[in-house]
Amino acid sequence: MRAHHRLVVVAVLVLVAIGLASLVGANVLGGQRVAEGGRPGQPHRTLQPGEAPHSQFHRFRLGAIDGERLSPNRDDFAARTSPDGPLLLFLPATRSKPADYQRFLTTALGDGYHVLGLDYWNLGKTLSATCEADARCYGQVQRNRFDGTRSSAYSSVSPAGSIVSRFRDAVAHLDEVDPAGGWGRFVQADEDVLWSDIVVAGHSQGGGEAAYIAHIRPVLGALMFSAPVESVGPVHAAWMDHPGQTPADRMYAIDDVRDHYRPRITGSWTALGLDGTPGDGSVTDPWRTDTAPPLPGADPHAILTDLPVDDPRHAHSRIIKDSTPLDVRGDPQMLPMWQWLLHRFPTPVVPSARS
Fold first, then answer.
1. For residue 89, which phi and psi values (nearest 5 degrees)?
2. What share of the chain is helix, strand, coil (3-state, %, to 5)?
3. pTM for the full model?
4. Predicted pLDDT at 269
5. Is residue 328 classed as helix, strand or coil in its secondary structure?
6. Which of 16, 132, 138, 260 fits 237 for a cystine, CB–CB 3.0-4.6 Å?
7. What does the alpha-carbon distance between residue 355 and residue 347 come to, in Å, rounded to a whole number?
8. ∠ at Cα 338 (345, 180), nearest 5°?
């Protein structure tokens, strides 16, 4: 019996040793991959039959990137119709998440876009409260959140947790679960993002980030909802003083007249040249409407709506979030305006798209 007991103990010790050796080996290999600049394979959940992001939203979360666990790491939303449509990359407002914008994302999906509502580091104070009248602060914080560079006391997002890194990982996942979807073409072999086929959009802080991305990258277009909130009196984000990679005629901004941030937003529009022609010294008022889109042939780039809301404090969000007012048919009152904005950029004809 004693001999048998000794054999059992020895066998257990051997198994433990093998397990520890395997764990150490895995960690060493993982460390080598990170040190070499590679990305360890992520344990993404395999989609069930019929669950591919085709015509319906696929919710997923990214795993750790380059050995770093992401924070925040809330659900991303993705879907597509045509495999050759452009991509709408949507960034939520401060402390908001992609799940808060499903009505708008569904509208873009119906109009032929690949859609990616991307989570990113948008916690803490708003950008406007962080920077106030510090003109250079805005671009420093926005660049840090974009690619992980320019870390400061105001923002210290790592390269792995940046918007660009999250975007690449999300596209890699979507290309894996939906290989016929055309997702991979948005990231080239050298991991450069194909910005020229992407419309960047966002709400509030996310809209300001979309404007900044359009400034430093030649995107297909930019949509800014209740954004950018980047001017205080005569001071505005310093990056707006220089010509950007995307011309103002491919950028559109919209806000509501009741928004308490409106002076900061319209001041940013003026700095960007959206309510006039950049460089010619002209300044015009933003185009105003209730919720109806412009008439055919009109092309305003700065728009103020008069959206009926029960509390003016809600105006900043209800222009785009799922809490937006609905009409008698249950459709968002903003739907025609959303579609007008989305139609500013070429998309494939989708039979099911609303006209």
1. -100, 115
2. 35, 15, 50
3. 0.83
4. 96
5. coil
6. 138
7. 13
8. 55
339, 292 Cβ separation under 8 angstroms? no
Strands 231-232, 198-203: pairing kind: unpaired
Dist CA 208 CA 214 (whole Å): 10
Residue 250 per-residue DSSP state:
G
**Which pLDDT tens digit goes with each residue over 281-324?**
455 789 999 999 999 999 999 999 999 877 888 999 999 999 99
CB 226 within 8 Å of CB 320: yes
The CA-based dihedral angle spanning residues 87, 92, 97, 102, taken in that order and rounded to the nearest 10 degrees = -50
Structure tokens at 331: 């459709």
What the block records as the tokens of 160 is: 């792995």
Sequence-distant (≥ 6) Cβ neighbours of residue 106 within 8 angstroms: 57
Helical H segments across the chain, by residue range: 2-35, 102-110, 127-131, 135-147, 163-177, 205-216, 262-272, 315-318, 335-342
Which residues partner with 221 through β-bridges? 199
Q: Which of 147, 323, 339 is nearest to 254 (CA)?
A: 339
pLDDT in tens, 150-184: 999 999 999 999 999 999 999 999 999 999 999 99
